[in-house]
Amino acid sequence: MLPILLSSQIAFSADVGDFWETPQHGGNVFNRLPASTELYSDLSAYNASWVRIAYDKWPSESRDFLLGDADDYQGLVPADLKTLKGEIQRAGDAGLKVVISPLSLPAYRWAQNNNGKFDGRLFSDKANWEKAAAFWKDLASELKDSPHVAAYNIINEPAPEKQSSLKEHASASEMKDWYEKVKGSSRDLPAFYEHIVAAIREVDSNTPIMVDAGWYAAADSFNYWEKTLSDDKVLYSFHMYEPYEVTSAPNLRRDVPLTYPGNAPFGDNQSMRWDKAQVAEYLNQPVEWAKSVGLPTNKLVAGEFGCARKVDNCAAYLMDVIAALDANQLHWAFYSFREDAWDAMNYELGTKGNVGWKYWQAMEEGKPDPTKYSSSGLFSIIQQKL
């Protein structure tokens, strides 16, 4: 029987398959080492249907995994490509669809692999787009026949606005005014995506492509996009950690941590009330944008969301975010699943559990995480919605 689609949805073309036609729920795996088969099998057993994988932390003989050198891309690193393909196969064998999500591109090295410094070259000179396009053309050529790859996520959390005059969480009118000034320039994110999509389509006409909103994929950053991209197999992704001053791990180091629900700084507002209603209102922005440009809601993805698990009322926050996403029948993936270098959003540990010294020792020695995991009351909030 064919799936029944709501009026706000539209089927992807038949040659792409029907995976994204109905809401898909999964998790993010951004680990320092390729994951064990058990990790993917357990994620699948929790009823996740997809996993978003970033490989940039993995060890490589080269400066940058898969890229070789983000400063001078000359082609995919064969050994790294083999490792990536093996990871995709393990996830696929576990019953998960895979979204590949680089944290770095040529001329855009992820800050944590760049001595903590933001690398803005990709969006400061349009000439740098060519190497990024070459990389994606090469990678799509290698992955196009995989039955497990559900989408290519061009770049995780781009920020072409960062070194410009546009502030984070500016008003919609301020964003639109800014975009009018930068349209056609190296900071034109939709134009950048059009360029990369065209390169991918030279070698792969079928695989869906996922694009993150600007300003680190903020849910309000589609507000300046005048239209969708020209390719009809594109998914539009945003992330949700707002209010970041509450949900992030640094909040736990405050003398008096901020709580949810409660007041927190956001944009120009130094004390904004965040609760279930405000979360829903904020997450309705990409939905309203989609409606304004004629985009079906089944092409919207919350590619990441979460909160530091020890934050007061993280459970309520997760429930409220998922409720808002599910109310609009959006695809989503929680952050993160069994991260092996950072336990702050490892919800299987609950609100008070700790990984133990062997976890940190394994990280120092470059060995796999030895922790044995199981569900918790906190994780069950996500588990029951997967």
TrEMBL record:
Listed GO biological process terms: cellulose catabolic process
Molecular function per GO: beta-glucosidase activity
Keyword set, alphabetical order: Carbohydrate metabolism, Cellulose degradation, Glycosidase, Hydrolase, Polysaccharide degradation
Sequence ranges assigned to domain Glycoside hydrolase family in this UniProt record: 39-338
Example of a GO cellular component annotation carried by this entry: extracellular region
Residue stretches spanning the membrane: none
Gene3D superfamilies: Glycosidases
Keyword Hydrolase in record: yes
Superkingdom of the organism of origin: Bacteria
Family under the similarity heading: Belongs to the glycosyl hydrolase 5 (cellulase A) family.
Name this protein carries in UniProt: Glycosyl hydrolase
